[in-house]
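Render UMP kinase in 3D.
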Amino acid sequence: MMATVMNSVLLQASLEKIGVQTRVQTSFIMQEIAEPYIRRKAIRHLEKGRVVIFGGIGAGAGTPFFNTDTAAALRASELGADAILKGITVDSIFDCHQRSNNVVIFNLLETGNISRALCGDQVGTLIDQSGRIG
């Protein structure tokens, strides 16, 4: 879980470098680098136009046998997110049957994919709310 926090802080630094306001929230207490995950606070950040990045959320989600993807989907559902962005290091995906939100899965190593995904451009694979892969 610590690696996800480290990745979150790196993503935050990259986004802030280009002028995007962000906040990192985590289930771990790490006052120096991230806020604790508080649903209302995350919603307030989103209302102010900030990007909220969740790191280390699997361990504190109350679901010890599920991975960080499951915890991210849970947080997205709690916040009413339009989509979950998942950067991976390969061009293929595993079939899944998630029904709660849209998931965009894209190759993290292809230059520009993070920006394109955040801007809503078509990149990677979209798995919609009905589980259809497009």
